[in-house]
Amino acid sequence: MINKIKSGILNGVQGYLIEVEVDISKGLPYFNVVGLAGTQVKESKERVRSAISNSGYKFPLSRIVVNLSPADMRKDGSYLDLAICMGILKEKINEEEDFFNETAFLGELSLDGQIKSMKGIISIAISFSQMELKNLFIPYDNYMECSELSNINIIPVKSVRDCINILKMDKVSRELYIKERIEKIVEKSGINKQGEEEEKDLLEDDFYFIKGNKIAKRCAEISVAGGHNFLMIGPPGTGKTMIAKAMKNILPTPSKDESLDITRIYSTVGKLYDGNGLIKKRPFRSPHHSSTLTSIIGGGVNASLGEVTLAHNGILFLDELPEFGRKLIDSLRQPIEDGQVNISRLNRSVTYPANFIMLATMNPCPCGYFNSEKTCVCRASDIDRYRAKLSGPILDRIDIFCEVSEINFNEFNEDKDKRLSSKEIKKHVELAKDIQELRFKEKDIYNNSQMSPKDVFIYCNLSDEAEETSKYIYDKYKLSNRSYIRLLKISRTIADLDNRKEIKEKDIMEAFSYRRAYYKYFYSKE
């Protein structure tokens, strides 16, 4: 007798369908798992045996062989426990074979038969929702993260006995029982109360409290609105870090697809707490400059994800960028350009999403006071060596360069009515984001920074004056193709913030003005 049950495993942040074949035949008691099973999967034999016995069922004293198909794919993790258990106990369930053909089971078993919550359940559930599966049994505590998935019925279960009891019900009773259970879970989580509390007018890191630096604030707004990489250069104490931290409060609300991407990443690394639904806030990651290459990019023996993936659809803030070291900084080139990072190890190859805004700050020299009112004590060679940590290819991938200067007393005491709060700036950003969503509704991109060169020439409609100016800038400053494309993308975002379809000359000029700091600190004419 062979019972077939569908389940899944996780590789990176992608879920894969696994068919669990359980053969129960006469012979001496024997229990084995085959099909390129990892250590955790092989250990499932003892968990399944104890869970069945402690749930009040009799474990078959027969020859049991479990095959995991496809056999050429390595299986790791304890996601298959529940499916193996259901394959052994299938005789106790009066369900037609068609039901099992469109149903999958995920969950780790404890020795007493309880089904434990797991990392990365939503990633597998998302993959299954795109297949022909109709039902998915998952751990009870993982329900909220999967609650907004469509095209598949999510059935939360607490234990082996609970799962069997649900399967024994007729279709109408089962649907009613599951509906009542889900309502209780949602009520307990309080997710339906989200958004009821009034948002504070002024936040802890609010642009309203940042005096002066109008150009830097404008750059921050453009960066967030279009997803553009942003570098601030200036002496210590001028507000670079303060502006960077305030940017997390003007990030636009993610779309449902973006929320699913963020949630599946944080679920995979176990940073999603039980009872939480979809993450509806963009991430802001700020690793220390002593972080290793593996912790930033990802890798290690298990090809783990890094900070660039945790910052997906959000901001990766690198404070004091040159302190990270040239090797680590150069390793950001591929994620910035491709929006993903490829990690290959001996036993596996994984692709992680890494579409983020690179936000960075730096001093103009090692002591920090080059070209400021205070005296710089650095030698010319030290300054050159310090700035050389940022290679040409990295600088070419930065869209906006902004010099943040020391503010004078009049700027410090500017009229508070002239300062915009983060809440007001976010409204402008949301408007630009809505325009971009409408523009790219037929494409698999979300903002202007993700446009391909082909998209740029389709969607960046320049006026005659703007076209002349852009040609003049391209020829005079010998821009690379990448720099010119990025210039047009920024101009597109500036026009979006003004709710205009056509890019005007002033948009090109403003976008190019945000390269002034580049020419001042990094550009040397041969």
UniProtKB/TrEMBL annotation:
GO terms for molecular function: ATP binding. Residues 226-411 form the AAA+ ATPase domain. PANTHER family: COMPETENCE PROTEIN COMM, MAGNESIUM-CHELATASE SUBUNIT CHLI. Belongs to the Mg-chelatase subunits D/I family. ComM subfamily. This is Magnesium chelatase. The lineage of its organism: Bacteria, Bacillati, Bacillota, Clostridia, Peptostreptococcales.
